[in-house]
C-alpha cells in the first residue's frame, strides 16, 4: 500500500455528461415511459431542484478545461471519470443498447484523451442484455478505458444472476475495474419526497447489490474481481454484523458463500463519499485502509466540493490518510 505524501490525489467518483447518448435515445419507444418511472420515483419537488442543478453544472460535466480548473481548486490531480448514471438506459432493446455502449465508451474515452495525464475513464455495459456484457467490456478496454460502470441491478435481474458469470470472469481475467453505482431504487414512490430517492435509495441499492455479490458466491468464484462500490458501499459496511449473524445462524443465508460476509469487504473497494467522518472511520475499520478510495461524486450536489477536506475530517493516521487520498487508487488505476 502506497502511503507517501508524494502520491497524487485521485478521485474515483467523478462523472461526465454525454449529450450524444441522450440524442440517441430521445425519440425511441420506451423513453417516455422510462422518464415517467424516474419522475415517479423521485417526485416533483426533487425534479424541480435537480433540473436547474444539473444545468448549472453542465460546463464541469462536459468541458475538459472547466473540469481541470475545478480539479485544481479541489486539489485533485487525477479523476476516474464515469458516465452519468442517467445514461444507463437499461430499458433499451438489444440493437440500441449496442449502439449506446459503443457511443458512451467512445465519447468518454475522447473526453479523457483531452487530458490523459489527469483523466482516466470507465465505460458502460448494458446489464439488461447479459449476452452483450462481455463485448461491451472488451470494447471499453480497447478504447483505453479502465473498465465499466454498472448499476445495482437491471430490470428483472440481480447481480447474482448466473447470466452475468461471463462478465465477472472476463473482468477478472483482464483486471478491469467495475464501478458499482446505483441509479434508481425499486422502493419507487415510497421515496418520492424529501429526496429520499437518493438519500435512502442509493445506499439501499448499494447494500442490496453488494449482498447479492457476496451471498451468491460471485466473490468466491472470482476472488480477483476489482469492484469499487460508490457511496461507501451504502448501508452494508456499517451493518455487516447483521449479515454475519444471518450467515452463522441460518442455513439459507449461509448456503451460497463460503466465508463470513464481513470477510468479503476486504476483497472490495469503496469510495469515501459517506458524508460523515465517523462513518468513514468505521468503513476503514471493517474494510481496511487499503480498500477505501477518495470519491467526490463530481460535480453533483450530493457529492462534496472538498473531498480531501472531508477525508481529513476523519482524523486518520497519516499513512492511512495518504493511502485513501490517492495511494490506493494510483496503484489500482495503474494495474500494478
Automatic annotation (TrEMBL):
Please give one Gene Ontology molecular function term for this protein. hydrolase activity
Q: What InterPro entries is this protein classified in?
A: ACMSD (IPR032465), Amidohydro-rel (IPR006680), Metal_Hydrolase (IPR032466)
Q: Which domain of life is it from?
A: Bacteria
Q: Which residues form the Amidohydrolase-related domain?
A: 10-333
Lyase is among the record's keywords: yes
Q: Which GO terms describe its cellular component?
A: cytoplasm
The protein's UniProt keywords, in alphabetical order, are: Lyase
Q: Which GO terms describe its biological process?
A: secondary metabolic process
Q: What protein name applies here?
A: Amidohydrolase
Q: Which organism is it from?
A: Streptomyces poonensis
Classification of source organism? Bacteria, Bacillati, Actinomycetota, Actinomycetes, Kitasatosporales
